[in-house]
UniProtKB/TrEMBL annotation:
PROSITE patterns: HIS_KIN. The chain crosses the membrane at residues 29-48, 60-80, 92-110, 116-133, 140-159. It comes from Salinibacter ruber. It is an enzyme of class 2 (transferase). Its EC number is 2.7.13.3. Keywords: Kinase, Membrane, Transferase, Transmembrane, Transmembrane helix, Two-component regulatory system. The lineage of its organism: Bacteria, Pseudomonadati, Rhodothermota, Rhodothermia, Rhodothermales. The keyword NAD does not apply. It holds the Pfam family HATPase_c. This is histidine kinase. One of its GO terms (molecular function) is phosphorelay sensor kinase activity. InterPro entries: GAF, GAF-like_dom_sf, HATPase_C_sf, HATPase_dom, His_kinase_dom, HisK_dim/P_dom, HisK_dim/P_sf, PAS-like_dom_sf.
Amino acid sequence: MSDLAWPPFSILRPEGEELSGEQQSDVQAYRLLGLLGAVVVPVFGVLLAAPDPQATDPMWARLGLSALLVGLVGASYASGAVRRRFAVWARGACYILMAWFCSVATLNGFAGSYDMGILLLYGILPFAVAIGAQSMRPVWWFLGCGLLAGTAGAAFGPVRAAEALPTVGGLATVAFVEGVVIWNQLDARERLERQNDLFRRAQKLANIGAWEYEVSSGEVFWTRQVREIHGLPQGYEPTAEEAIAAYHPEDQPVIQGMIERAVEEEVPFDRELRLGGEALPVGHEQKEGRWVRARGTPQIEAGEVTSVRGTFQDITERKAREHVLENEREALRSMYRITADREAGFEEKARRLIDLGREHLGLPYGFLTRITDETQEIVFASGTHPLLQPGESCPLSRSYCRNTIQEERSLVVQDAVAEGWAGDPAHQTFELGAYVGAQIIVEGELYGTFCFAAEEPREQAFAGRERVFVELMAQWASYELGQRRAKAQLKRQNARLDSFAGLVAHDLRNPLNVATGRLRLAREERAPEKTRSHLAAVDRSLGRMDEIIEDVLTLTWGGQDIGPEELSTHGLAAMAEASWDQVGTDQVGTDQDGADQGSAEGATLQFEGACRLRCSAERVRRLLENLFRNAIEHGGDTVTVRVGALSDGFYVEDDGAGFSGDDPEAVFEAGYSSSDEGTGLGLSIVESIAKAHGWSLSATQSEAGGARFEVTGVDVEAVGSAHS
């Protein structure tokens, strides 16, 4: 805001950027004083000469001084050079006025009103000299020169010393008093300017400025920083309508409404707005895309809002950072969705990630390489570069990747030529101006690289988060390729295991079947009692061998991964009843003498709630059969077995003897058995089937003191209540 803010005085304020705001205020003040002086000098002369018509005080001289002042003011409008030196010349005019009046007062012998006139002029002009002064030096010079001129007039003029002495003493007194007063004013102004300078610097650093809207006049006052934020020249005071028009068309009604509510309802506001409205007719530099935070508080006097004061803060950089972070979050979310897609294979995911990286980094080429025997081969790629296509290869020595694999972190090249790559074989081969790449490490060994590039240099350097983004892609590729390698190895192991299981099924069961047939024939013939007891023992041994073979096959095939085509929804109760029936038709087990260890005929199966499972029904029935056999073998003919639903699975428990050891989980170890005749594979089979489904299996003691097995992590649908 200017020092002279009354609208009629605005014509006195100079325009143009060659002057600072303080210099403009000085010129404005001197113009006003020059025009006032041009009027006052002749009028003052008439008043002084009126008591003595014979006084020596020619009017033509006064009119000449008035013309000098008017001419100086006029020249300041015509020339920038004059405006820049206007304050100095205005002070010179003060010296001329003082010298002229001292001469006139001396010629008139300090008689009449001239002694009072010189004291009055000597008391006024130092304040004019002090305008814009940075120190007391010009003031002391003027006071000294004025006192010297008055003293010289008294000493050498046509006046007795006794008559001139009061005037000289008055000049000395005025000089002392004015010097003290002006010194205090300049000191206060210096402190105020220092505070204002600190305030301006704080505004500059925080990109924040202050503003005020006067309700009665509708005027808007902006600080320097507010004008800079809005792209307005210094010294321009916009109207309220112009201030609102500087904002984005969609935000103009918003700020208008906030001002109205602040005035009418005394409601303060704090809102983020966009600039970019109409250009103002004052050399306005439009700030499209710039954001400001507008805050305002109504000022209340006598119960009414007289003004609204607040601040504008440039938040464009913060908004830009927020935009970058949001893009970063969206890119990471997209990366997660791609890598977590269970329906997509590695090749599809890699291609989608390459396209995502190209878009996020703003680079047209993306590719995944395989490095073997000092050769780089492009495995997957996206973009039109002829040498960066799937299947293309080149010596590693002529690729950017040779440097990538030597870096602990990703390699970044913002401007290849500026960074010394112009003569490098890689730049000569591919002519890439920008590049970022990271290593792919599989099982501790180098596999290749994940890279993005462009033919043109990148305008902005690669940010740390962008490097991390590429490194995350490379780490994902490392993990996926490691998993593929592990799965391939597991597949080979399963194939060998299948071959072994086939060998067991064929090469062991064939002679076992022959022995069983011969044993049946031997039993049909008459044999002594002792021989028949030996044949019974052989029968039991052959039966046990058959059970072992069956358990080994079940453990081998039951633990293999289950494909989606094998999964369907089945009722737990139906599968449990089928398994119970199967256990009831089998001989659960025999002791060394051939007696049954347990039978399903006397045992009881109960259900505690029903549910449906998404599973392989055949394998789950085998799981339940083994759990039921385990319960009958250890709980006897009268054991009660309960099958029930859990929130994420099911359980099987009994009221038998429970676990013999301190660690129930030990029962899942292959070969573990509390019976000398047990194979120790039954519960291992249960665990392998559960793992094949991706389920968890745990063992604990039931409330009745028996064994309880819980299967969790199951896709369960509750459908019923308890029954037996």
